[in-house]
Amino acid sequence: MNDEASQGLEASLSRQLRTTRERLGAMLGRQGEALSPWVLRRTLRELRNVADPTVSDVEGGRRAAGVAGWYAQATPEQRRDCWLLMSEQFPPDPSAIQAAHEAYEAARGTDEEARAEVRLRKAFASPRTRLLQRFAAFPEGVRFLVDLRAELLPHLKQEKRLLALDAELEDLFSNWFDVGFLELRRISWDSPASLIEKLIKYEAVHDVRSWLDAKNRLDDDRRCYGFFHPRLPGEPLIFVEVALLRDLAGSITPLLDENAAAVDLDKATTAIFYSISNTQTGLKGVSFGDSLIKRVVETLRAEFPQLKVFATLSPIPGLRGWLGKNTDALLQAMPARTRQALARELEQTELQPAHIAAALENPAELDEKSVLRHWLLDAAARYLGNEWTPDGRPLDAVARFHLGNGARVERLNWMADPSAKGLKQSHGLMVNYLYDLKRLDRHRALLAQRKVPVSSAIESLRASGR
Prior knowledge:
Elements: H1 3-15, H2 20-24, H3 37-51, H4 57-73, H5 76-88, H6 94-107, H7 113-124, H8 127-135, H9 141-152, H10 163-176, E1 183-186, H11 193-202, H12 211-217, E2 222-228, E3 238-245, E4 270-278, H13 289-303, E5 309-312, H14 319-333, H15 336-345, H16 353-359, H17 371-386, H18 397-404, E6 408-413, H19 420-426, E7 430-434, H20 440-448, H21 456-464
Parallel strand pairs: 4-5
Antiparallel strand pairs: 1-2, 2-3, 3-4, 6-7
Helix pairs in contact: 3-4, 3-5, 3-8, 4-8, 5-10, 6-7, 8-10, 17-21
């Protein structure tokens, strides 16, 4: 959806206040709404025909394909009306839920309890589920639903009435895209050009600059793997790029250097996951990244038994924003002696957050003895190891992913990403997360106790910043 269409839809969201029930019962005009009451009623009839329990799934799928054909030609505002119909007009039956719940409560502790639970479960099932399943019955139906949700997601905050439809889609996708139905495939330079083009399009961590850049990432000393689903042929759902090295990577620059010499694979001992990209916005909330890493580790160990270390070279996307909000508190918590040394280095008599921000605009100029450099590393260690969301998850999104999979924060790397994006996100810092295959469960257990697993080097940095 282009910006103009999106802005038009946002404007319509703010002015359309009538529920679909009110609009379906109206006789007069649209009052600024996309579909007139008559067209809205006709669209609802077509959706109900799709969900009709008296017809076969094949016939329901044929009808769904017809609705999808109309939807492809609809305006953004008309599509939004279709979403509202799906969300508001196909709920579970409240009276059936209440009756089934009462029967279940009466049956608890008796021989009928299990049967009553089954009836209660069925009562919670909504006609909306059958409606969406029918869309999945025609060949392009799953693609249609994934794209529909991708278009719907940006409007959820403003239009709460769509939450039921979104939750139903996410629940169905979690089942349809279970890792048991996914195929792990290697993507190489010999893969179809159309697949490599998708790799270039969807790369979300380090932009692919050219076909030579893509070839470098798919060379013999690299590996790239993706998860594929049979209903989305030729479309990776998520992919990971891996560099096979002799040591832990401390900078992204040599990994993206198209002229760098190839690594001798017989001497490679370390697998570095340096980019993981989801490709389908509509599958937000469906988790298969952890399973991808596990499967890739198993595949690499089978091909290269000498590999001993599995780690990442990861961005720290939230660091700079967090620093902007917390620099003053970090300065206040700094030991007086260190604060004085930092003030001398910056040639300031009274340190202010603005002085720190200005000095960090050119982090490459800070040498190893720089007090500011050490302060930034300390702050990054604290950010990764001590900061949490209100619901008890690591604050940084990338840390949340890897720590949730059982990795630990291993090492911070100075000026590891000197690109404009790297400087904007984290003043050029990157981090290694180590996947110690024998300690993954232990690390997850620590995380559940709100203790981030970190290496001794990171722990020392955190301690020095207190």
